[in-house]
Design goal:
Two copies of one chain form a homodimer. Chain A has helices at residues 11-29, 33-49, 51-62, 66-89, 139-147, 160-176, 190-197, 211-223, 244-263, 280-296, 305-319, 346-351, 353-356, 373-381, 398-407; strands spanning 96-98, 112-118, 122-125, 151-154, 184-187, 204-208, 230-233, 239-242, 275-279, 325-328, 332-333, 336-337, 340-345, 364-370, 386-392, 411-416, 455-461, 482-484, 487-489. By secondary structure, chain A is α/β, with parallel strands linked by helices. The first copy, chain A, folds into two domains: 11-234 and 441-489, 3-Layer(aba) Sandwich (Aldehyde Dehydrogenase, Chain A, domain 1); 239-416, Aldehyde Dehydrogenase, Chain A, domain 2, CATH 3.40.309.
Chain lengths: 491, 491
Amino acid sequence: MTSTRSTPAPAEELETVLDNARAASGELESARPGELAGLLRGVADALEGATEELVPLAQRESGLPEGRLRGELVRTTFQLRLFGDVVEEGSHLGATLDSPASDWPTGARPDMRRVSLPLGPVLVFAASNFPFAFSVAGGDTASALAAGCPVVVKAHPGHPELSRRTAELVTTALREAGAPEGTFALIEGTESGRAAVLDGRIKAGAFTGSNSGGRALFDLACSRADPIPFYAEMGSVNPAFVTPEAAEQRGGEIARGYLDSYTLGVGQFCTKPGLLFVPQQALREFEETLVPEVRQRNAAPMLSSGIENAFRESLNSLREHSAVRELVTGGRSEEGVTPTLLSTTAEELLAHSEELMGECFGPVSLLVGYSDTDQLLEAAAAFSGELTATVQGVEDEDVVESLFGVLRSRAGRLVWNGWPTGVSVSYAMQHGGPYPATTAPTHTSVGTAAVERFLRPVSFQNAPGAVLPEALRDDNPLGIPRRVDGKPHSA
Amino acid sequence: MTSTRSTPAPAEELETVLDNARAASGELESARPGELAGLLRGVADALEGATEELVPLAQRESGLPEGRLRGELVRTTFQLRLFGDVVEEGSHLGATLDSPASDWPTGARPDMRRVSLPLGPVLVFAASNFPFAFSVAGGDTASALAAGCPVVVKAHPGHPELSRRTAELVTTALREAGAPEGTFALIEGTESGRAAVLDGRIKAGAFTGSNSGGRALFDLACSRADPIPFYAEMGSVNPAFVTPEAAEQRGGEIARGYLDSYTLGVGQFCTKPGLLFVPQQALREFEETLVPEVRQRNAAPMLSSGIENAFRESLNSLREHSAVRELVTGGRSEEGVTPTLLSTTAEELLAHSEELMGECFGPVSLLVGYSDTDQLLEAAAAFSGELTATVQGVEDEDVVESLFGVLRSRAGRLVWNGWPTGVSVSYAMQHGGPYPATTAPTHTSVGTAAVERFLRPVSFQNAPGAVLPEALRDDNPLGIPRRVDGKPHSA
């Protein structure tokens, strides 16, 4: 259970981790914003300083290329620092003050002040496909720490050495930045993860990974005597729709952008476009552009043999489906796998949605020919919960507005004339969506709003200044934006 | 399933209700803030105009006194109008705009804009104890409509005629204010409620009532193939703590305030103080003040015979507990029930927490003598999820800060030198708390923030103005507060 252990930890060590997390919880709850921001920045500095050690370790365990991993580490440290800024800016606390009002229509209104406090220890399940940005010190960890919650990370078995080394660096950086012991710990093994999600000391969970894994953990979290919020970001098909005019005006460019997006990271992105809808009359042209280009792609290794096996299994059931034509059959060499390209019609897709509209995590995508824009809209309406939906269109084209109208209630992020892979870490990012994209449609797991998942509001009625959190005191000592008597007040 | 039907509706009618709600969903999603506010105000006006009809109906079915019901109806119409103001002010949409930034550290940042959209049809389970404010047109309905969600209310069987008449008024008012058909419907019967919570057309649920009822529905919502957020506001013991100095300085006043609070509404408030901790040395004085006053209280009817039977059952198991002394035994007459007062020690309470620390919904409360402030803090730490916790203390008294420190991670609202009954509808109100007070610790069911439960964020990446919701357009046509490049911008 320590960060240097290589075998699953015994139950007593999990006990210690959880006890320490609980103990740290009270101390972190009273940490000042500057202190919390200091923790986040300390972790960022430590990871950045260890780039030359961490990147080769990540390469060895994930098989991902060096450039991608360097970029991902930059993203990870940037994200930690951005959450440091969020903490200091203070909007996320939702500080709200109502002054006493004797004439309030529901009876004399007392002095009421509301602020968000940390939920308590958060259990983070690391993902395999982003060994930095969605793993030990990734977005869930950063946003939970920003909320003031201790974090227990369940390591992903796909990169155990990297996980342990990252955890060591995080632990040391937190200690040096003054964090209480128990602010962070790494645990390993499925059984430890299951035990932790069921444990009363854990107050929320976050997960990035497959639908089956996320749902199983969500079910455990809900089955507790005291259920906890469980934020699982799971699979997504991320349909992309090419309008008739876009296909005509720039079909070739769209085809190449699509190929780059669905094969990025060997297709192992939760935002990979798994389906591309193109007008039936343009399908042949798309196929002719794509087939030779797909064939030229180099083989690359998948993250692990487990993931490759799962990919192969779901790929085979797609390939063997009677409604699917195989345009390019991906191969397997010592260097890894090459991409596959499949094709079908919207009519067949709708008739076999159960089998054809699920996520296939890996380098494959399905071209779907649609007969007319009515069928395009019908197909768009068949999706229920997606992280993203993409429209390649032409402004002022008739179908565009209707298409957005259908898609906006079905996906968390709508992309116009771009591709869904590549999730920016910013204020306005939404990385989430209705089930099955996530178990929590009202939240995001990327972007600054991710911190909200780990906060709970508390109101103080007529309370004296001495017991109020600083965010609520008369003189606004933290200098944060607050809402006073219903009106926003900047600091 | 129509609002005038007196028997549980057949399944086909539920189908129609849910189909209509789904159909209304798309239209409401595009409603402008002024239109949504108009719906809320129309409903408020209609209910207010029917005061002389509704209050007697509520009296007859609930047994609650006229004055209380008139006040509750005022609260209900005020609440609807306040949510109208919330909708027009627009902060709840969380509109956030990031401009393109080519130098963004995670790679060129696209134009990204995030706004909250309605979740879709919401199923509201009405409560028995507030036939207006937490029933057909109560806080859950008002906040769901404010979010732009159609509402299906499962009527509480405790006031069927009032529910139907309220639903008629709501339906007519909504129609006259221009709402799409299907914006609102009433359903009746446990089976209809269960079927609706499991139905894919329902996108969120809200409930106010008992722990067993709330948990059962939460479990159903989580068991769906596509789980939905289910916001259950359930029972709470609402402990109140009298510090040594407060007991000395104003024990008599505190005792009387406590009595008024725990007997208010015949003890049928989810914020009723079920336990009052007093210093052991002051216990006798509290008892001497309270006992004659409790005995003088008049009998009053409980909401229904079902609730009275449940009360009697849990009361009996408290009274017969070996650790409990009975100070005043409540009676039963034609007029209803009189209050009960019980007493124990903190030591016994902690030793028998399972039996003694649960909610007993009705006119009873338990005085608890504590030996010293260490034991007081130990007892406070034994609670896990409460809607409220109350401290009667003296400023600068040593224990006060520690007590607030313990309680703030255990309750949604902390009351200082007041009583928890009486929940103001305002901006800073938090009516919620960790489980078992609610199933959703990150949310509130009263106050303007309640609208957040029914919204989901969506981001638009590089999208043209024509497909952007108005809240996100360049010229801010709604004139709402937005966050631009991380900085708050007032309208």
